[in-house]
Structures are given as C-alpha cells and as structure tokens.
C-alpha cells in the first residue's frame, strides 16, 4: 500500500505542474508559433468598486511562487482591504508565468476568503479573546494557510500544532470531550484534575464542562475541583443547546453565586459573527471553527490587459494597466496607471518582485495591524453586512 498522501508537492507547484491542462496546451501552441509576447496581466475579483470589502492574503506564497522568474510583480500589501480593481499585477513575457496562473489564483483566493472571515469575527467581538479552531474542517495540507490567514484577520491564537511550527506561532488548546469520556460518566473531576496535574504551567486551566451533566452543574464542579481554574469552556452541540445565551448567563450567575467570580467562560461550537456580537458581553472568549476555515474562496481571475504596450483586455474586462488607491474618505479608487491619481490618494499596489527577486519582507503581525487599521478606515462592519 502506498504511504503517500494525495498532496501536490511544493516542487511541483513551483515548477508549474499544479496547473490546468489548457495552460500546457497554450505553452505548446506558443512555442510552436515562436510567440512569447510581453504582457501586463492583472488579478481581480471585481472590475469596479462594489462596497463589499474583502481582505487580501496569500502574498507570501505568491512571492515564493514567482521567485526566480523573469517577471516584475506588484501587489497590495497583505492585510489590505479591497472591494474591486486589481490586487496584483504581473509584467513580463507570457510564457515565463503561463503555467503558474492556477496556483497563483489558488494561493490568493483561498487565503483571502479565510482572512476575510477571520476579520469578520474579530470585528464582531473586538475586545474578546478569539481563537481559530477550524483546521479540522480542511485538508491537513492547508492547515498552515488557514491558521496564518486567521491570524492575519486578527484572531488571537491557533490550534493546529504543525501549522504553528510552519508559521512560527505556538498552538494553544486544553481538552476535548474525549478526555472526559475516557474517565467515565460521573468522574468528570478525575479528568479535570488529571489535566491540571499533567500539563505544563504555561497551559491555561480551562475545563470542558458540558460532557455528561448540565453545563451549570459541571462548571460549578470544575471550579471547585481545580484550585486555579482560568475558565470553563462550553461547547454544547447544537441539538442540545437551546437558548445558548441564557445557558451562558446562568453559568455566570452560578459561578458568581458560589464565589468563583474570577473563573471566566469560553464558548465554542458553530459560532460566527452574529453569535460573537450577541455573546461578547456574556463570555470572555470564543473558539471559532468552520465559519473561518470553511470560507468560500474569493473569486479572483487573471487577465491580460496589455500586449506589447497596447491595451488588450478581452470583452467584459477593463483594458489597460491600472492602479488602485485608498482615498482620504476610506474609498477604493481604481484608475488607469498613466493618469493622475486622486487628490490625497494613497497608491496601494507595491513592488513584490523585480526580475524574479523578492523585494518585500513579510511580517504577519504588521499585516494583522494593517487589516485592523484599514477596517477602521473603510468602516468594515460584518454584523451590518
């Protein structure tokens, strides 16, 4: 039996083998005709500004994809919000990057979708601790992309251990229901105490309190069983949840009534922006899974807009090389690159590669800060949307 997973390797991606077959046919035809025109190609989701903001991510992977190729690439910074116009521009001979289009769009589309969802939940509960719990919903090969995009969108932490090793962030987490079940019904205290005694001092003492008994009952018992309990986590399945807000408020009341005011409440399980906005004043933190990790990819496409210095876009696409700007009022202005920029406009497309050399550094913390600042500028509000 083969021990290989169905995963395309980084070497195959860089070599252009993670491509749609028609790009192979295109290369065969161009080589046969001895054609290799110099073009400008742009990646866009919408031609004009729509007012529906999305968060740009995946830039680091794209830089490594094009590294060593004789092309110039400009792109928005990671963490920039956009609602139309080009997010990335390539200039060079077409055969140099023809086979990379599929991977390029995949890198940008999927990560930007995840990052946008992460920003939505971040903005829904700006003062709360929000952790990414969603890597179990996706193919493990893309776990690091999901966690990096979640952090870019502003989430406070991740759960995937290997992803953390890839992106240089330590994963966090406490216990699943399986740990409590392993000790048997009626022995929840034994499970909580084993956890408390076994894990390192740097691990927060957070107990899962909805396995066998009422959430209020288990939360109070956990607070009495663990001397320095940080929080209780409530992850009740939707089929048994009822009025989740009422349950959480009752837990808070019971903990306070029994002298455990310092024990926080952490909620998880099928939560999105609406639930975070509703519950942010009831609990201290959230774990968000599928809402972020299962995000629809942004529908980017790549189009040639200039051929040998002349406008050349296909029907339905805006021809000519373009520039995009953030205007003083928080708008997103799209215009031809050879025309005057809007008054007070800040040009957003920045050099990413020059003749195949990466000319930009990548700082996840700075990108996350940019996302938060730009979200303020454009009035990004996921609850209203």
Q: State the distance separating the first and last CA atoms.
A: 49 Å
CATH architecture of the largest domain: Alpha-Beta Barrel
Provide the residue-averaged pLDDT.
96
Please report the first level of CATH classification, the CATH class of the largest domain: Alpha Beta
| Strand order, sheet with most strands | 13-12-1-5-3-17-18
Assign an overall shape: elongated
**What is the name of the CATH superfamily of the largest domain?**
nicotinate phosphoribosyltransferase
Give the uncertain stretches in residue-range form. none
Radius of gyration: 24 Å
Which sheet architecture does the biggest sheet show? Answer: 7 strands, antiparallel
CATH topology of the largest domain: nicotinate phosphoribosyltransferase
Tally of contiguous helical segments: 13
- Approximately how much beta-strand content do the residues carry? 15-25%
Provide the helix percentage: 25-40%
Q: How many structural domains?
A: 2
Can you describe what's shown?
This protein is an alpha/beta fold. 35% of the residues lie in helices and 19% in strands. It has two domains: 10-20 and 36-114 and 296-378, nicotinate phosphoribosyltransferase; 127-293, Aldolase class I (TIM Barrel). The chain has a seven-stranded antiparallel β-sheet with strand order 13-12-1-5-3-17-18, with helices on one face. Strand 14 and strand 15 (332-336) form a beta hairpin. The model has no long low-confidence stretch (mean pLDDT 96).
């Amino acid at each position: 039996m083969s021990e290989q997973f169905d995963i395309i390797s980084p070497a195959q991606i860089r070599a252009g083998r993670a491509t749609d077959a028609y790009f192979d046919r295109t290369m065969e035809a161009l080589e046969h005709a001895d054609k290799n025109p110099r073009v400008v190609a742009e990646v866009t989701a919408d031609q004009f500004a729509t007012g529906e903001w999305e968060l740009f991510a995946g830039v680091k992977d794209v830089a490594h994809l094009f590294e060593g190729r004789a092309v110039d690439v400009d792109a928005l910074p990671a963490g920039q919000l956009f609602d139309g116009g080009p997010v990335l521009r390539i200039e060079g001979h077409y055969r140099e990057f023809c086979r990379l289009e599929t991977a390029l769009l995949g890198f940008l589309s999927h990560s930007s979708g995840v990052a946008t969802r992460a920003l939505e939940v971040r903005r829904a509960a700006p003062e709360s601790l929000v952790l990414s719990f969603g890597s179990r919903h996706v193919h493990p090969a893309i776990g690091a992309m999901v966690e990096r995009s979640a952090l870019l969108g502003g989430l406070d932490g991740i759960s995937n251990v290997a992803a953390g090793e890839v992106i240089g962030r330590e994963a966090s987490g406490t216990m699943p229901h399986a740990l409590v079940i392993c000790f048997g019904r009626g022995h929840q205290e034994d499970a909580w105490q084993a956890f408390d005694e076994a894990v390192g001092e740097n691990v927060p003492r957070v107990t899962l309190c909805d396995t066998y008994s009422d959430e209020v009952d288990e939360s109070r018992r956990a607070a009495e069983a663990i001397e320095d309990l940080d929080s209780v986590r409530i992850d009740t399945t939707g089929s048994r949840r009822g009025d989740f807000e009422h349950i959480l408020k009752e837990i808070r009341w019971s903990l306070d009534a029994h002298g455990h005011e310092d024990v926080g409440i952490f909620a998880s399980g099928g939560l999105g922006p609406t639930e975070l906005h509703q519950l942010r004043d009831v609990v201290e933190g959230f774990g968000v899974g599928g809402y972020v990790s299962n995000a629809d990819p942004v529908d980017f496409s790549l189009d040639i807009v200039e051929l040998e210095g002349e406008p050349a876009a296909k029907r339905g696409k805006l021809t000519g090389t373009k520039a995009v700007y953030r205007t003083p009022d928080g708008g997103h202005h799209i215009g031809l690159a050879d025309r005057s920029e809007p008054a007070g406009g800040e040009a957003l497309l920045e050099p990413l590669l020059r003749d195949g050399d990466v000319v930009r550094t990548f700082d996840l913390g700075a990108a996350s800060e940019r996302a938060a600042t730009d979200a303020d500028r454009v009035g990004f509000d996921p609850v209203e949307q």
